[in-house]
């Protein structure tokens, strides 16, 4: 059942990332909702192999994004692995404990993606601007993560009570 929900959320995030990009834009920054789904999956997972699923989700995100396919997934794998390891060590239970983990992982992922794009020569803007926009996207996506983590926590609590 969890993987069915993941597929639905990845689809909805992909639709929102593509169809609602202009609506969600704040300045030059939009959130990366597909990456957010991957990060939330890892932080809520109960197994150590969740980073592989996050990498697959990021690869799907790469397919709908402009640029090279695989760069986002290549960064997602180590970032999600680290996120999952830290989340298991910290054992944070609520959104307040999980949000800093997701925010840190999202920041590393966005900055790594921007630096790699610039290193490959595909960046349309100077590196400093790319990194600034990547940091803005990380902050924006992390802000969007709070309600997502709250709803996921409520759903998990209600499911455990049944």
Instruction: Average the pLDDT over all residues and give the rounded result.
Output: 90
Number of helices: 7
How many β-strand runs? 0
* Main beta-sheet strand count, sense and barrel state: none
Give a written overview of the molecule.
The protein has 162 residues and is mostly helical. The chain has seven helices and no strands. The longest helix is centred in the C-terminal third of the chain and has 35 residues, at 127-161. The chain is globular and about 45 Å long.
Give a brief rundown of this model.
This protein is 80% helix and 0% strand. The protein contains 7 helices and no strands. The model has no long low-confidence stretch (mean pLDDT 90).
Keywords:
162 residues; globular; single chain; mainly alpha
List the helices and strands and how they pair.
Layout: H1 2-19, H2 21-24, H3 33-44, H4 50-64, H5 71-90, H6 95-119, H7 127-161
Helix pairs in contact: 1-3, 3-4, 3-5, 3-6, 3-7, 4-5, 5-6, 6-7
């Amino acid at each position: 059942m969890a993987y069915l929900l993941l597929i639905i959320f990845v689809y909805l995030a992909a639709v929102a990332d593509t169809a609602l990009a202009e609506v969600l834009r704040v300045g030059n920054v939009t959130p990366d909702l597909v990456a957010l789904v991957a990060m939330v999956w890892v932080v809520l997972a109960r197994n150590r192999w969740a980073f592989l699923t996050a990498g697959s989700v990021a690869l799907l995100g790469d397919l709908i994004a402009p640029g090279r396919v695989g760069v986002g997934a290549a960064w997602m794998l180590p970032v999600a692995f680290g996120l999952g390891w830290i989340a298991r060590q910290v054992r944070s239970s609520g959104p307040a404990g999980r949000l800093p983990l997701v925010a840190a992982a999202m920041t590393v992922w966005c900055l790594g993606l921007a630096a790699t794009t610039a290193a490959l020569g595909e960046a349309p803007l100077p590196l400093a601007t790319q990194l600034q926009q990547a940091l803005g996207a990380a902050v924006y996506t992390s802000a969007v993560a709070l309600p997502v983590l709250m709803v996921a926590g409520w759903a998990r609590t209600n499911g455990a009570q049944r």
